[in-house]
Structures are given as structure tokens and as C-alpha cells.
């Protein structure tokens, strides 16, 4: 059963009379004192943590895509628009709404988790069940601090329920925050059930250990990272998928393509690779998606090309939308466009050609060409397949080496190719979608076993064991049909590139680059769009100015480089 989130708001009736107009006389009222009592109350409160997190990073808000935009993975599809992270100085202003979004959203999760943890011991929840409830809450607290510490550096560490106004917050060091994350995740890993014993979408012992491994890497605790990731990898209930499976296994594709088809992310499909999967259910209360409005995670709209903007080689005619049916690209807007490093450089073999032995760059998973079939266009182009990587098709590139919004290589995992919900299809003959399209109608991986292997490889590299690091990397590469890497070639650059190859637009790339200290250098090297505007202090966000101004009881230090 999926873990969906239904929230009930109880609004008390207020009786007003002329002589007593401001006095409330509610027939019933819910407070923290009577809403954190029974086991059902705490389950509802935990469900709210899932909803808080899903709304924050998978709810369709523009800021959800800050994890991928303006990194070595992707850049803004439209120049000069701050919400697309098109300019670092303009985007990372201390007064910007984007800067406040991640701060307040994650502290909301922390506040809700702290209330659960603090009120649990005096509740009616049976003593033997309390550690699991606390473990789930502490997992989300650590998860929220993960975003805060990589976005902002050291932040105020709040571990108790806040029941009154407070204006004297001070920042803890980055290491102090991460060590608290580790403590929370060790507790969660010790007290949460294993993944086969839980409903789909509920956090498990394996999810806690996966995040624990990542957190340990952030402060150089490589042995702890190896131990935690090995707990996940060694679980016999988990394994990389190596054979075709799921809802569309009889269609052309490969096992990597199968991982991202609708209904294939969870164990009920036979998938043994998903660890923490964000759950959606279209048109169901609490399901987080709609087919009658553009509601839900809009990775399709952000990452897929804006087909009507594609031009022919002479820059004269629009290529007919038939060259990329909307059933494949959906309602793409081309806002989250890939860097050349992501589409090409990381896939090159020893001859500097794309190595198509790797299924992750196959036509099913990373298409990179268009068939010209515009009947109104020049005859010389009819039926010609234009590979948008080749030198003779530089019309697809701007002078800065940036793909056109109308056509560029893209990852099909952003959409549900040929499998959109039926009532979203405007024209069944052409598979044209309605204007409200753009949502990725599939559950979404937050943690996947392939990443756990790459985390352990990074930890092995940290202790100097490149042979074991290569073994883990090759477990992932061999599933994809890629050539094995030799231990002598394994370094952090290779692992970061392998994360791009395997995880692509799934990855919270900004967090990875921040954690490994590669934000500034990788963007300068690989992102031609943002290379000139990023400065070293942009590796972390500014503290929101409104939070500094409100904190009159103590000094909340601003990050260096920001006024």
C-alpha cells in the first residue's frame, strides 16, 4: 500500500454577539496537548512529515529544481530569469524568496519532528512502539538538516519543541550539525524496520543507513560510511535490477528504462532497487498529483525540450511537432537544460566518441537527435536525421555552446513516454497532450541502491582502497553494459561523473557538489552558462536577511561574501 498523505483541517465555529464580538466559543478544538496522544495521532503527525518533504522538493514549486539548476548537470533554459537560477549574484540575494524557501521549508520539518519526539514519551503510544516512531521522526529531522547544512553551512541546531517566541538563535558549526544528523540516523537505523516489512514509501532501516553513509562522508568518517552502506548493500532483499521487468517490459527498451516507467519504482512491481521512493497517486486526496490541473512534480515540464521552439538548420522554419511526439516529450518547457558535460563529455570513450555500449545513454534513455519531417520545410531536409551532437549541426548551439530550448539531448526518465494518463491526451491520433500537461506521472526515487554503491565507492576511495572502490563502481557500470573501470582510474572526479551517468536528473546535484567541495570548481569547468557569474562564496547560500533581522536576541552571522 502506498504511503499517501491526507490532511484534515478542523476549523472551530465561532459564535459572535454584539457585546462579545471577539470571544470564541468553539464546540471543539485541537491543540498539541490533545493531538499527540494516541498511536493514530502520531501516525498522522508522521505522515505530515512525508507531506512536508514531498511538497518542499517534489511539489512542483520552481525552487524544487534548485538542486539541479546552475550546477555541472544543467543550466537555465531562459536567460535572465532569476527563478531559473540564470544568474548567481541575482539569484542568491539575501532578500530573495528562493533563499528563504529552503530555510523555512526545512525548519518546518524540523519543528514538526521535534514535537513528535518530545511528546512521544508521555503519550499513549505503547512503550515498545515508541522507538520506531522516534526513529522515523529523527530520520526526517536529519534529512531536513542535510539540506540546510549543504545549502547554508552551519545553521542553528534546534532539537526541542518550540512553544513560544524565540529570537536568540545562534549558528552551530557545519560539523556539529552533521554529527547530530549522524546521531539521529544511527538511532533511526537501529529502530526502524527493514524495507520488506513496511508499506511502499515509508522510510526504513536501509533509508537511514543510506543517508548515514552520505552524512559520514561529509566529515571524512569513511569507515562509518562503509559500515552503513554495507548494511544496505548486504540486505538480501535489495539488489540492482538486471533483467527487464514491470509494466512495459514487453516494449522496446532496456532494464534502465524500465526503472523509470509508471508503477515500476516500488517493490510491488518486482523492483528491488528502490530504497526511498516518493509516492504519488493522481486524482486521489493526498496523492500529490492531478490530471485535471498541472499539479505534482513537474520534472517533465522543466527538463523536456520545448518542441515548438526548434528550428531547422537554416533557422527559417519550425520543425513540425511531429518530430518529437508530445507523448514522448510531454509538455516540455526546456527550462532545465543539460550541460554539454552531462550530455556528451562524461560518455566519451578513448576515441572521444559517445560510448553507446552504456545503456544509460541509449536512444531509450538519452535520445539526442531529431528526424526532420516538416512538410512545409525545404525538400533537402525531408527525412534527414539530424544528430544534434555533430559539428555540422552547430545551429543547435548558441555562441556560448548552449543547447537550443527546442531540441537537445534529454533524459526520458523525466517523463512517461507514450504512457501519460488517458484523460491528459487531447488528440489520440497524434498523442498531443492537453495544455495542463507537464507533470511526471510516476513515483520518484529519492534514494536508490545504485547510489549506495557509489557512496561506498567514495568511502573506499577515502581510505585509499581503489580496488574495492572500482569493484562497487563496476557493479553499477556492468548492469548498464558499460566498460569496467580500472582501479588506477578511480578518483573523485570519476565518481562524480559516474553519479551523473547513473543518477542524472534524479540526483540532488547541488548537495553532492557542496558535500564534496566541488561546487565552484565544477561549475567553472563544466557549466558554460554560469561559469562567468559564479563566485567562490556562492558555494553556499546566504542566510535569509529576514531571519537575521528578526533574531534580535543574538547575532545570526551572515555567510562570508554576502552583504
Automatic annotation (TrEMBL):
Pfam families: SusD-like_3, SusD_RagB. Residues 435-562 form the RagB/SusD domain. It is found in: Cell outer membrane. It comes from Parapedobacter indicus. Gene3D superfamilies: 1.25.40.390. Belongs to the SusD family. Its main location: membrane. GO terms for cellular component: cell outer membrane. Residues 80-213 form the SusD-like N-terminal domain. It comes from the Bacteria. This is Starch-binding associating with outer membrane. Keywords: Cell outer membrane, Membrane, Signal.
Amino acid at each position: 500500500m502506498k504511503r499517501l498523505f491526507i490532511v484534515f483541517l478542523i476549523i472551530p465555529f465561532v459564535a459572535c454577539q454584539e457585546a462579545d464580538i471577539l470571544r470564541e466559543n468553539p464546540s471543539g478544538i485541537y491543540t498539541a496537548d490533545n493531538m499527540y496522544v494516541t498511536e493514530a495521532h502520531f501516525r498522522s503527525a508522521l505522515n505530515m512529515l512525508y507531506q512536508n518533504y514531498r511538497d518542499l522538493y517534489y511539489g512542483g514549486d520552481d525552487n524544487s529544481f534548485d538542486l539541479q539548476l546552475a550546477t555541472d548537470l544543467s543550466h537555465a533554459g531562459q536567460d535572465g530569469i532569476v527563478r531559473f537560477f540564470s544568474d548567481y549574484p541575482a539569484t542568491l540575494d539575501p532578500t530573495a524568496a528562493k533563499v528563504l524557501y529552503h530555510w523555512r521549508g526545512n525548519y518546518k520539518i524540523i519543528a514538526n519532528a521535534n514535537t513528535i519526539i518530545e511528546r512521544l514519551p508521555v503519550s499513549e503510544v505503547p512503550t515498545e512502539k515508541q522507538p520506531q516512531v522516534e526513529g522515523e521522526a529523527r530520520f526526517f529531522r536529519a534529512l531536513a538538516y542535510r539540506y540546510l547544512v549543504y545549502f547554508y553551512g552551519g545553521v542553528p541546531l534546534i532539537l526541542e519543541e518550540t512553544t513560544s517566541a524565540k529570537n536568540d538563535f545562534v549558528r552551530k558549526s557545519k560539523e556539529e550539525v552533521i554529527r547530530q544528523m549522524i546521531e539521529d540516523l544511527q538511532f533511526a537505523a537501529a529502530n526502524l524496520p527493514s524495507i520488506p516489512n513496511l508499506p511502499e514509501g515509508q522510510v526504513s532501516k536501509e533509508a537511514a543507513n543510506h543517508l548515514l553513509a552520505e552524512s559520514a562522508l561529509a566529515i571524512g568518517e569513511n569507515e562509518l560510511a562503509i559500515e552503513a552502506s554495507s548494511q544496505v548493500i548486504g540486505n538480501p532483499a535489495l539488489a540492482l535490477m538486471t533483467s527487464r521487468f514491470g509494466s512495459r517490459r514487453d516494449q522496446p527498451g532496456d532494464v534502465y528504462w524500465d526503472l523509470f516507467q509508471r508503477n515500476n519504482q516500488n517493490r510491488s512491481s518486482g523492483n528491488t532497487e528502490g530504497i526511498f521512493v516518493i509516492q504519488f497517486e493522481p486524482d486521489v486526496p493526498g496523492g500529490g498529483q492531478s490530471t485535471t490541473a498541472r499539479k505534482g512534480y513537474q520534472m517533465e515540464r522543466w527538463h523536456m525540450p520545448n518542441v515548438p521552439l526548434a528550428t531547422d538548420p537554416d533557422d527559417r522554419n519550425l520543425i513540425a511537432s511531429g518530430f518529437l511526439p508530445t507523448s514522448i516529450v510531454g509538455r516540455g518547457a526546456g527550462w532545465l537544460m543539460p550541460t554539454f558535460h552531462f550530455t556528451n563529455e562524461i560518455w566519451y570513450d578513448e576515441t572521444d566518441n559517445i560510448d553507446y555500449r552504456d545503456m544509460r545513454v541509449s536512444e531509450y534513455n538519452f535520445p539526442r537527435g531529431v528526424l526532420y519531417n516538416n512538410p512545409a520545410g525545404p525538400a533537402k531536409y525531408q527525412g534527414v536525421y539530424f544528430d544534434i551532437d555533430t559539428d555540422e549541426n552547430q545551429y543547435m548551439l548558441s555562441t556560448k555552446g548552449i543547447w537550443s530550448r527546442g531540441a537537445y539531448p534529454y533524459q526520458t526518465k523525466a517523463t512517461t513516454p507514450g504512457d501519460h494518463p488517458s484523460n491528459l491526451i487531447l488528440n489520440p491520433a497524434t498523442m498531443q497532450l492537453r495544455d495542463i500537461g507537464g507533470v511526471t506521472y510516476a513515483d520518484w526515487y529519492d534514494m536508490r541502491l545504485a547510489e549506495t554503491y557509489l557512496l561506498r565507492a567514495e568511502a573506499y576511495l577515502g581510505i585509499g582502497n581503489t580496488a574495492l572502490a572500482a569493484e562497487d563502481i563496476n557493479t553499477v557500470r556492468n548492469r548498464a553494459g558499460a566498460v569496467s573501470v580500472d582501479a588506477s582510474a578511480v578518483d573523485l572526479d570519476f565518481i562524480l561523473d559516474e553519479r551523473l551517468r547513473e543518477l542524472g536528473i534524479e540526483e540532488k546535484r547541488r548537495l553532492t557538489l557542496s558535500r564534496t567541495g566541488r561546487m565552484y570548481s565544477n561549475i567553472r569547468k563544466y557549466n558554460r552558462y554560469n561559469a562567468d557569474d559564479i563566485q567562490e562564496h556562492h558555494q553556499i547560500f546566504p542566510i535569509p536577511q529576514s531571519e537575521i533581522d528578526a533574531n534580535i536576541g543574538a547575532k545570526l552571522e551572515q555567510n562570508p561574501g554576502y552583504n
